[in-house]
Design a protein that fits this description.
9 helices; 6 strands; single chain; alpha/beta; six-stranded parallel beta sheet
Amino acid sequence: MKDKIDRNNIPQHIAVIMDGNGRWAQKKGAMRIFGHRNAISAVRDAIEGSAELGVKYITLYAFSTENWSRPQDEVNALMEILVQAIVDEVPTMMKNNIRLATIGDVSSLPDGCQSHLKWGKEETKNNTGLTVVLALSYSGRWEIASAVTEIVKKIVSGDIKQDEIDQQMIAAHLNTAGIPDPELLIRTSGEQRISNFMLWQVAYTELFFTEVLWPDFRKKDLHEAILAYQQRERRFGMTGAQIKSQS
């Protein structure tokens, strides 16, 4: 399947809603946290597969603001897994020229998570290959509300005028400022929802839903999603004839 991919039409930014860890564990008669621990292999494959194809950004929806309402034991375990993953994976990221970044309300994470994330981002900040963006304590509505709040503060202080607000200004105040919008969004486990993820950024993103539960996701599944993306015509409100005339 990888050989069928057009290397001249690779999405530069892929976003992933990593769904199905709990159901994967339940199918095996185990606790939900077992699924979270086994999801690390899927994360590695998604990152490695993206880097091999020349993808520039991959954003992984790791922990939403809504996830704070889960049982405390599960939340604590997820934070422990995050810390251990950073410790284990940063050396590999350094070897492969991969940079770590985050979006979301990282300040709401436990101190240990924050310090390890800061360390991981500092260690990898000069890498120039794939950027892995972890969405942590993140939601699209929170992000947009935060951007609006910052813009209002600047209006009140006189730094900007109300009539200067446009789409570019709003985008510049989002967590993803400086990162291109994703061309492809993958969601695993068969669910067909955006779930409050990158609501502004996915306005023209191609959506790919797969029945594969996240712990079972491998490079071949990534390749399948990219192939499906390449078979679609991205028109951005124009007609197919207009798109063809520009190519």
